[in-house]
Structure prediction request, 224 residues.
Amino acid sequence: MSSVMRSDNESHYPCDHTSWIVVNGLPDQPKEELTTAIMDGEYTTSGDLQLSDWLNRDVESLLLTYEDRHYKPIINRENGMTRLQVTEIVPTGNKGVRVNNELDYSVTVKARVEHEYDDVLDEPVLFDGEVKVDGGRRVTLDNTDYYGRMQVEFEIKEVDVSGEEASRINLNQEYREETWDADVGQGSKILNIYPTRLSFDTITGSQAYCRWTGNGRFSGIWPG
Prediction:
């Protein structure tokens, strides 16, 4: 990554690795522009934004995260003035909620996934139904590839096993409920089904983002 020389002779490193930006990870000047736009509804300045300079890319192509909420920037330029506004969104593209069956037998699972940002989504219940998972297989629940905060409930409805083998399986009526953030710095989730327990675990490898120190020194990509 090459450095860029600012007009005040201070060099910095733009972020050209990802379009996902965590506002609190930005240097002070562009962070102030974005927080003002988010909190006050808009940020206006003469000329161009410091944000454009620091990131060295089209600002409207960015996806922003601030205080666990997500935004897309909107820029209007007129008569030498630049106005920055944002619109709140719930982005998709995550790996989704998965169910992994470690048994040798098929399992029917009742699942409900509800997004907590019901003030942004028209339908916050992303999944509510049953899914059958064959032995040794993994499935991803439909419509659960959202980022943000979600609540998940699981219930084992049926294990397709009988006879002596059934005595080793003790999952009937077992129930699990979790709330978590599927976000930058966080992984997506997977329900692992074992003979005597359920395990709700994190899948690593979440969305990467750039971050800087307060004075603009680039400190790397996270996760690295």
Residues 99 and 219 are 36 Å apart (CA to CA). The chain has two domains: 4-90+207-222, 98-203. The chain has a mean pLDDT of 81.
